[in-house]
Automatic annotation (TrEMBL):
Protein name: Threonylcarbamoyl-AMP synthase
Binding site for ATP: 49, 53, 109, 134, 186, 222
Enzyme Commission number(s): 2.7.7.87
GO process annotations (BP): regulation of translational fidelity; tRNA processing
List of residues binding L-threonine: 26, 58, 113, 132, 142, 172
Span of domain YrdC-like: 4-190
Protein family membership: Belongs to the SUA5 family.
Molecular function terms, GO-annotated: ATP binding; double-stranded RNA binding; L-threonylcarbamoyladenylate synthase; tRNA binding
Lineage summary: Bacteria, Pseudomonadati, Pseudomonadota, Alphaproteobacteria, Hyphomicrobiales
Amino acid sequence: MSDRAAIERAVAELAAGRLVAVPTETVYGLAADATDGEAVAGIFEAKGRPRFNPLIVHVADRAMAERIARFGPLSAGLADCFWPGPLTLVLPLEPGSGIHPLVTVGLDTVALRMPQGLARDVIAALGRPIAAPSANTSGRISPTSAQAVQDDLGSKLAYILDGGPTNVGVESTILKVEGDTVRLLRPGGLTSEEIEAAIGRPIVTGSAGPAIEAPGMLVSHYAPDASVRLNAQRIEPGEALLAFGPNRGIGADQAVAIRNLSEKGDLREAAANLYADLQALDRYGARMIAVEPIPHHGLGTAINDRLSRAAAPRAQ
């Protein structure tokens, strides 16, 4: 099917209130018309997503964005620099935006992003914003291919728009702009270093309180079936190994399976491979996935964030 035909099919399904998986540069999103409450409710149902966890609204252009959220000079500058791209801005919600309250879970802010590629083309053709969290069961590994979506949620979707493997591989960076302060709520495909270089000031890290302010802030998230052990220097018999770089830890030859995020130690390549490699290792059925140390800079910040949430204790 041509891209044009695929976009037309996706738009028709969304316009009818049905769920569609769409590719972005980060991961595949589970999309519904953000103005249609029943369609948005379908996202929460399909994912098994907690109703207190807000959704990101995706837009096609700045005009659409400015009908939904209130931009100040700093947030407008960030959008100018990094949209379309892997950046989500948490901004004050405009009255009369048309965004259904289920999307924002009652908050007076909205998480807003302009994606690259086919997802943006779909939104433009639809003429309305879409709500689109990652297209996976809540708390599980995010999908970076159409096949990964099919394996997890395929029976619950009207259509999967196949755009090939995603090229960033981790979700968008989420920033909350409050006056002159830029707060990092979730590291992602845009690094802190890139943001700070653009705005000429340091960003503040972490939420201002215990409440969920944006997607991706749950302690346990992005998890495979296997348990995850971080910063592994020694590999125990029976473990699967998520490796990084050219050198292996002690006992690596005893691993039931090995996937290397990047043989050359490239963090951008590692981010692109993260979820697919976790899924591949999980299929071996090991009780534990041991993860070699990943540097905590650049995209390594986002990779370590996802891995720490994958390793967190899970609700029983």
